[in-house]
Amino acid sequence: MDLAPRLIDTATPRAPEAVALVLHGGADRPDMPGVSPTQLSVLRMVPTAKALARAGGRRLAVLRLLNTRRGWDTHTTPVDDVRWALGQVQERYGDLPVGLVGHSLGGRAALLAGALDPVRSVVALNPWVYPDDGVPLPGRRVLVVHGTADRIAPIGRAERVVERLRRAGTDIALERVEGGKHAMLRQARAFDGRAAAFTAETLLQRAGRR
């Protein structure tokens, strides 16, 4: 099987001021390593991408990244896919500021790829992380939104990551969604709306100043 990352357009304004890159989650499937546009973890990010497009109006381009493989493969990780996608974004739009918005393993990828240029903001939704994950992100604004009832990616891990990155000088905040579970279905508006508002605010205010 020829596996390769892909970008799917959600919003492509004629002259955007910034770009939002949406990153999906999804566990390993040894019997089906490739990423399908119809897998649930990918489809869950469609309303997130649409919320970003509404918040950004005609000023924000929104693209969804489909990873090379499901889960976190040791040879080609989601961070490698983000690096590829940023190269594609630069070819298409030039040196516009980019915001990463990821869920679950996509949230982990966003935190680990946040130091790459031209990333300027990161939103991690129910990120599946290890307590020592993430790198200091000076000059970026970072938001973690986590459900308190998430049993797949326990919020305690995210809290430790946030506190460690804050001590390292990262402008990072954690917002809790009471009763929110990993799939972000019941409180979808809380997760998607906060991700969209934060991304539009941070990217477009920065673009306006520039």
Summarize the helices and strands and which ones pair or pack:
Blueprint: E1 6-11, E2 18-23, H1 40-43, H2 45-56, E3 60-66, H3 78-93, E4 98-103, H4 105-113, E5 119-125, E6 141-147, H5 155-167, E7 171-177, H6 188-209
Parallel strand pairs: 2-3, 2-4, 4-5, 5-6, 6-7
Antiparallel strand pairs: 1-3
Helix pairs in contact: 2-6, 3-4
Describe the structure.
The protein is an alpha/beta fold and 210 residues long. Helix content is 36%, strand content 22%. The protein is built from six helices and seven strands; from the N terminus they run E-E-H-H-E-H-E-H-E-E-H-E-H. It has helices at residues 40-43, 45-56, 78-93, 105-113, 155-167, 188-209, and strands at residues 6-11, 18-23, 60-66, 98-103, 119-125, 141-147, 171-177. Strand 4, helix 4 and strand 5 (119-125) form a beta-alpha-beta unit.
Fraction of helical residues: 25-40%
Rounded radius of gyration (Å): 16 Å
Count up the helices: 6
State which percent range the strand residues make up. 15-25%
Order of helices and strands: EEHHEHEHEEHEH
The chain-level mean pLDDT equals 94
Shape: globular
Short précis:
Helix content is 36%, strand content 22%. The protein has 210 residues and is α/β, with parallel strands linked by helices. Helix 3 crosses helix 4.
